[in-house]
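Below is our example:

___
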Amino acid sequence: MNLLWSRTCAVAEYIRGVSGVFWLLTTNTSAICKVFPALSGFAKTHPLEQVTLEFIAQSKAGTTAKITAVFVVAAAITIIMGNCFGKPEETAEDLHRKGAAAWGQYQGAKDREDKRQLTEAIDFYNRAVLLAGSRTPLRRTILVDLLFALLENNKPSQQDLALIEEYFTEVVQDLLPEQCQFITETTGQRYEDLYKISLDPSHFDRCVANYNDAALKYGPTPEESVVWFLVIAELHIGRKEVTHYEKALDALRAARDICPNTPAGDVERLKIAKGMYEIYKTLYLDGGDKAYLQGAIAECDFALALPAPEDHLQLLTKYVRCVWVLLDTHRDTPVPDELKAQAIDRAREALDELAETPDGDETKWQVIVDLADILSYEKGNLRREDLDHAVDLYRRAEVVVPEDSESDLLVKMAGAIWLQSKSTDEQEGFQTAIDMLIKAYNKTPGSYIANNIGAIYLDKAKNTNVADLEMAREYYLKASNVCPTEPDKTSFADQAKAIEDRIEKLTKTEGGVDAGPLRQLTGERRQTRRASIMG
């Protein structure tokens, strides 16, 4: 409006000036020569006016010249007015209409790969936004159209995406929930595509933020929300970092909380529980934090409560394995008897399902051994019948033991027989356990196996049988010799020295010499290999 007013005023001044020229020319032809220099300055930059003035200058004085001059000046006025107003400038409305037309052509085109109309539409919309006033309905209308046009570009720049988010914030109140959902989903997808190329963490964060909005903000169905939380979890898992694994767990928990109570919802809950188990397993293997192992056990337990016949056996075996790893690896952690009992029940359930499967099957063989391990776990409520069952299971597994697992199985079976013999003071059992351990030691010499042999000889000797004490001393020395690290190396040597002192005192006592009080020696069972959640 200001530009139009200034041009109108300028034209008025021209008309008033030219009117005087008109009167002068009709009364005094000679004035043409005076007027010409005044107009010639203006004519220098206006070619049409230059022609007009040249025509006037070349005309002869007289009536004809006067009349001609009148019409020529009138024409000049018209030209001057046209030049003052110029071609009308396009308005925001005009540009918006042109953008909409280009967008319509793009939408109707058979070949969407040709982006020329799309580019044209975006250009018109951008120009329209610049002309539209701030906080006006027209601006918001243009922005909405611009948003959808920008999102049509499969490979927007970071600047385009930033504008999309900025404009969306401005017009979100004017949009339908379905439109908001589409914009957030598509913006998230564009950021995800950009992140795959750039690996810029900020692009990842914006992607997840948009997907999170898609899951929560704009009225999606529970099923839709679950899908987006699963997508978010998958993205975090892909980062392979502890903090992102934790965020993946958060996303999966959020998904589980809104799963509908339907058969389809049960399927999703099962999928989520299995996913969380895998994350906990990964975190535990990475750092050994027992809280992650306990989380894995809890997720298996949750999944087993769901109807999942095709996954039931696998979940049973995972649960049993995780409980055994918790018992074996974290011996300082008190484990409720209920957890141990439940693991035993589920191991037996798994064996029932595998009743028609040969014991040599890898899965079944591992369940047999895991059940025997849990039954013979020496801490807590250890019953004689459990030990007897464990030994039977070990012997069953021994028949089909893989060669690379034989030594470890012998050590475990010897440990169970050792515990049996300690409870009944059965000498034959001690010797059976010793023979098994010696066989294992000969296959794979290890300090802890030698230690266990020495400890059983100590139990068998009852601190008085010199022959057994000498064998105990021999194996403690072997343990010290093959042990690569301190403080165990020194500990084994010290035990051998103590046994040697004991033998010396016993020898003196037998010879009638007072050897003084005899210190009771006890052996300690050592774990030869910690259990692994991997099996």
Remarks:
- The two ends are 81 Å apart (CA to CA).
- The first helix runs from residue 2 to 27.
